Amino acid sequence: xxxxxxxxxxxxxxxxxxxxxxxxxSGLLVVGGALALGVVLDLALAASVRxxxxxxxxxxxxxxxxxxxxxxxxxxxxxxxxxxILRDAWPPSAAPDPVRHTLAVPSGERRRLTATLxxxxxxxxxxxxxxxxxxxxxxxxxxxxxxxVGWTVRALxxxxxxxxxxxxxxxxxxxxxxxxxxxxxxxxEFDSLREYVRGDDVRSIDWRxxxxxxxxxxxxxxxxxxxxxxLVLDTGRTSAGRVGDAPRLDTAMDAALLLGALASRxxxxxxxxxxxxxxxxxxxxxREPLPALVNAMAPLEPELVETDVRGMVSAVLARASRRSLVxxxxxxxxxxxxxxxxxxxxxxxxxxxVLVASVADPRxxxxxxxxxxxxxxxxxxxxxxxxxxxxxxxxxxxxRGVTVVDAPPERLAPAVADTYLAxxxxxxx
Length: 429
Description:
Blueprint (H helix, E strand, L loop, with lengths): L1 E2 L1 H16 L4 H21 L7 E6 L2 E3 L4 E8 L6 E7 L7 E2 L2 E6 L4 E8 L5 E4 L2 E7 L5 E8 L3 E5 L8 H14 L9 E8 L11 H6 L4 E7 L4 E7 L7 E2 L2 E2 H18 L3 E7 L3 E5 L5 H9 L11 H11 L5 E5 L4 H18 L1 E7 L2 H8 L4 H26 L3 E5 L1 H17 L4
Helix pairs in contact: 1-2, 3-5, 3-11, 5-6, 5-11, 7-8, 8-10, 9-10
């Protein structure tokens, strides 16, 4: 049972009547009895909420920052008309609009209610219970009940770095057989023969073809297709740190999506592994890599634990049996790299090429340049020390044969894509 505001208002007016016109127990019984009779009558005539049938339909996924539409159909299978209010509960991060709906459903009919969701966070947003209050004809009281009507809307990563894709695809087309190379690399394959011109590398001369032709012929090469990329997201505690308005993990995911889209267009196979102390997400052998990557990344959240680098390396080696480009999105903290990553590098570098991508905090650069007062000077010294340690870690990895990309959030995705294209052009994949 549920009482409405009208009941409270009538009770207040009744108190005035008793106090002014009918003082005593008799007046109290008359006013209270009339109000109670109206409440009982409303309860008896209100439509039942238990016999209602509710169904959902609509969008099941939406890119973060955009709107999703979810419909709720209410079917009244009872003998009485339903009049009341429905509350459709969603998590606050789903930002539903509206939350409450006014209901008027005659017997045997159905009504469709529409809610618009605009999620503010990645991940799955699950609908909670639907609560319906069926009010009687007098509007004093009604029946109230809840129904579990499950529905999930997945908020996908926004992929803001998509704007960099056209320019990188144009550069890829230049590499993909349209601009042949004269130097053979590990990641190249034979493209064609052409006549020698002054300035060509003599090592590219094909003497057998030249003997059969009337001129000196040289071989040209192009970047090999069907290479393997394994994108590894470190979801440990360092990925929870916020740089600007977003966690490091979100920036890494955006860069991974741009690289995955570019590599799949290049004809390379793209897989994903998200790891801290266990596998949090995995994509292997997807025919459409980009949708698979987006769906796998959507529910990921940073775990406040130290990443088990040995376990991560074992997981990488188990998934990459042939030579691959392993792109590890992680931090460049000196302690974490020296104690965790460096011991596992030899086994990785023995079979794969490794690229480490890290998110740099632009605030550190701002602090290093500040000289306004004593506090700013101390902050600048601390920031400069942090930058020096970071550069030292990058040089240490570079000496071990690891390619390092360290860039602020807005530059990380295009920098990783450019590094991939440079490796591909040099035949180093």
